[in-house]
Amino acid sequence: MRLQTQLGLAFAVVTLAPIAALTFGARVMMKRQFKAEFKRQMDEAVDQIGAERRRVGADVEQALGHMATPDNQLLHPLLVKLAHGPLADDVQQTLMDDVGEQMRALGFDVLTLLDERGTVLASGSFPGRAGDVDAEALQRARSGGTIAHLVDEQVVVKGRKRVALALEAARAVEIAGVPHARVFVIGGRVLGAEFLQPLNAANAELRAADDTLLASKNTHPLVDKQALRIAVPLTRADATIAANVIYWESDAELRDQLERLTVGAIAAAIVGLLFANAVGWLLARRISGRLGRLADGARAVSRGELDTQVPVRGRDELAELGAAFNTMTRDVRAAREDLARAERVAAWREIAQRIAHEIKNPLTPIQMAIETLQRAQAKGPQVFDALFAESARAILDEVARLKHIVAEFSAFARMPQPELKPCAVGEVVEAALKLYDGAVPVERELDPSLPPALADRDQLTQVLLNLVENAREAVTSHPAGGRIRVRTRAADGRVELEVADDGPGISDEARAKLFTPYFTTKARGTGLGLAIVHRIVTDHGGEIRVAGSPGAGATFTVSLLRA
Predict the structure, then answer these.
(1) d(CA 264, CA 245)
(2) CB within 8 A of 382, min separation 6: which ones?
(3) Using CB atoms within 10 A of its CB, is residue 220 exposed (0-12), middle (13-18) or buried (19+)?
(4) How far apart are CA 273 and CA 13, in angstroms?
(5) Cα–Cα dist 40/247, whole Å
(6) 560 and 494 Cβ atoms separated by less than 8 Å
(7) 147-168 average pLDDT score
(8) Cβ within 8 Å of residue 80, ≥6 positions away
């Protein structure tokens, strides 16, 4: 292969490798930024859906509490009539109308009156149910129905019966000491599009447990299979899933940006390749031209033309070689003039030998290098690729390292610094574990004399909820079940919080990577929970330890500074 071709290939590889590396790094960073922003928005949306559910439930409970009293203008006459026996038909019809007006006045979508046997006296959402016996509703009303829970409720919308998802609460209203003067009032609101409107997420859908669409905030349904999505379950009182709020975000714009980036990189690569070939061609032509002139001069000297001179330009090694060649020819020519006619033939032979020797010294390594490259080319282009593979790998390694630093700062920068104050760890535990009452048994071993820890209360709550949630998933996924134990204690001048479970345990391999970002053993896990826990604990100046083995459960211990 000619020197011109070799230099062209070398410049092409050096030019294309950085473009490819930077393009790959930019694509990875854009995808990570998009997913990180989506996760941030979804975390906010998850908090919002819980807050919105609590707000609607509180509104239902408050409104029903004001209405469901014995002196209510609707209920008092009804209680008096029930004390004297069954309701007459005209009274029943009037009651139906009054219940509908009362339901609308309260802003309810559901308002049902039951007698003490569970017979529907009136229903504002489904007038045709009057006279039916609803044992399930009666059971809910009797067993703590004062708190709003999700219920599958029958309603009539535009003359058609359908099952809707509603937040309902119940109250028992009676006249003390009067037999049969008792009714159960059930009221609530149907969760529909208005439930989704306060959410910040642009795209949200409410779907039943069987994936039936109940309501949508966005007029465009989720059809993009590549869109990022998350489902937030809405559970009934018995912890079964009644519906899911689906948040989604299309990455079509991201794909367009990545496509434009790729097209731009290809265009830059083409321009760079043309430029590299041009530079390689010019450089090769310059070097090969100067070497060619030296070779022509050497051939001229070998023919006896001792007055041959080559042009000398620049101050590089080739210029020094040309100057040495010119000096050599001048010396040879001067020596020839001093020789006698009788010695001319011998002198020519000696001069030829000296010229060959002087030319061979600088030209031999150049010739050997060219021959080596020619032999390598004969073996295949992989030799030239290998010459530049190490440089390309070094460049890629540096790009990967810079990318890794940016990603770690962004991730930790998103996390605020803890506001360290004296914090009662026992109170934090009690407040957090109330969320799991009725869902999973949690044993508490809390030291009542525990000194306060130096911690950020909100971030410590986040650590505890994450560890308890992991323990809950471990014991519920284990065929034999298990229990969860939360313990606090003082040890070695520090405050320790321990969360243990009897789940399937942790392997040695997994334990070594537990706190590594994006490592997870769950099918649908994000791999960020324990990494964030580890970051919070270390930012507090504490440490977190994990113990356990396969089949023997797992124990996480958080050690914090005392206040």
Answers:
(1) 39
(2) none
(3) exposed
(4) 9
(5) 12
(6) yes
(7) 85
(8) 175, 181
Answer positive or negative: Cα dihedral of 129, 134, 136, 140.
Answer: positive
> Beta strand 484-491 with 442-445: parallel, antiparallel or unpaired?
parallel
pLDDT tens digits, 160-176? 888 888 999 999 998 88
Residue reference for tokens 């535990």: 429
Amino acid in position 333 = R
Residue 19 identity (one-letter amino acid): I
Residue 185 and residue 172: Cα distance in Å, rounded? 6
| Structure-block tokens of residue 479 | 């065929």
Decide: helix, strand or coil at residue 206.
strand
pLDDT of residue 216: 83
Least Cα distance to 4 among 343, 268, 286 occurs for: 286
Interatomic CA distance for residues 507 and 309, integer angstroms: 80
- Dihedrals phi, psi of 518, to nearest 5 degrees: 75, 10
* Encoded tokens for 437: 């009452």
Structure tokens at 278: 């041009």
- Whether 130 contacts 114, CB under 8 Å: no
- Mean pLDDT, the chain, as a whole number? 77
Q: What is the pLDDT of residues 473-523, one digit of tens each?
A: 888 877 766 789 999 999 888 999 999 998 888 888 888 888 876 677 775
Q: What is the residue-wise DSSP string for 114-180?
A: EETT-BEEEESS-GGGTT-B-HHHHHHHHTTTTS-EEEEEEEEETTEEEEEEEEEEEEEEE-TT-TT
For 171, the token pair is 């109250």
In the chain, the domains with their CATH numbers are: 68-191 (3.30.450.20), 421-561 (3.30.565.10)
Among 267, 27, 240, smallest CA distance to 151 is for: 240
Distance of CA 521 to CAs 514, 527, 528, Å? 9, 8, 12
Q: How far apart are CA 59 and CA 108, in angstroms?
A: 10
Q: Which of 336, 304, 308, 302 is nearest to 322 (CA)?
A: 308
> 276 pairs with which residues across the strands?
none
CA distance 515 to 493: 25
Contact between residue 124 and residue 100 where contact means Cβ atoms under 8 Å apart: yes
- Provide the 3-class DSSP secondary structure of residue 241: strand
> How far is the first Cα of the chain from the last one, in angstroms, to the nearest whole number?
76
What pLDDT band is residue 378 in, cutting at 50, 70 and 90?
A: low
Question: What does the alpha-carbon distance between residue 233 and residue 221 come to, in Å, rounded to a whole number?
Answer: 19
Quote the tokens at residue 79.
């209680």
d(CA 243, CA 192): 11
Q: Which two tokens stand for residue 266?
A: 């290809």
φ, ψ of residue 284 to 5 degrees: the values are -65, -40
Q: Are 249 and 270 in contact (CB under 8 A)?
A: no
Q: What angle do CA 226, 231, 235 make, to 5 degrees?
A: 165
The whole model's pTM is what?
0.42
